[in-house]
Amino acid sequence: MTGRLIAAVLLLLGAAGAQIQTDSPNVVQRLRVRIEFGDHAPCDASTRVTLSGTMGFALAEGSVNGECTTEFFHVPAGQYRITVRGAGATNADEGNVEVNPVINQQVEVRAKHIESGPANWNTHTSFVSIKELQVPTSAAKEFVKANHLIAKREWAKAGESLRRGLAIYPQYAAAYNNLGAVYYRLGNKVEARQALERAIALDDHLPAAYLNLGRLCFLEKDYPGTESLLGKAVSLESTVAKADELFLLAYAQLIDHHLDQALQTSRQAHEEGVDQHAFLHLIAANAYEQLHRLPQSVAELESYLNEEPDGPQAETTRKVLVILQARIVNSNSFSNQ
Hints:
alpha+beta, Immunoglobulin-like, 12 helices
């Protein structure tokens, strides 16, 4: 069973990545996002807006203008989540939106102001560091330009702007995080790792850097490194790509045979209502099966089928379920003899 479920996990990862492919003909050319605060207060210039797929994979990130809006370009049609972060700002709702294949689309996302000061700034933001308050104007222009280029997926040009900005102001951890993500998009994994490690060295409370470096370790099959880095991201109580980080963390724990931890992470994801948590039932089922707790494994498989009866792994799961149920019956029969 272990091999079957691990294969299912890898298939899901492929499906998640497909959400953000750029070669789909069904795209909205320009997605305009307007942030509306319930108290009608203006946006701070540091407010950031992140566009993510339903599994939490970040597609693009940008800053707002004076009208509290930002724009994303050439976005494939589908379901997305919009996350707002900045100077004391956070989402007031889930920020879930549906992007339709039209030329232009505008959506509104409700946000609220929260109490936050310098002491806890970094634990509540993903791309903005407290050091941004000291960024020289010339460097800030490059970083803002990079954000717009990232939104348009112009990775090489975004990297150039980030490097220019960091040459002026090399203490900006969030820029190194973005540079690491850009390097990875360009296929430069060595440079990506170096940039992300530099981001963490500058700001060891930047959840996005731990998350991105953890993803890189995961793709390199460094599962102990994945566990350590994503565990740190979770400990910072980050809401950045929560589904992504908890899913990858549980999977890494399963591969490393830290079965109790994998079960704990799976339960945490369910308690927090993480999107796509149905697939975590398969991770939990695998862990229970390895612990020889077959009834619990069966229960997890049944939960998956209840939540995803037509899901990508439904057919395989049904076959595995029959096998486990037969093993339970045979075990009970043997015990009664």
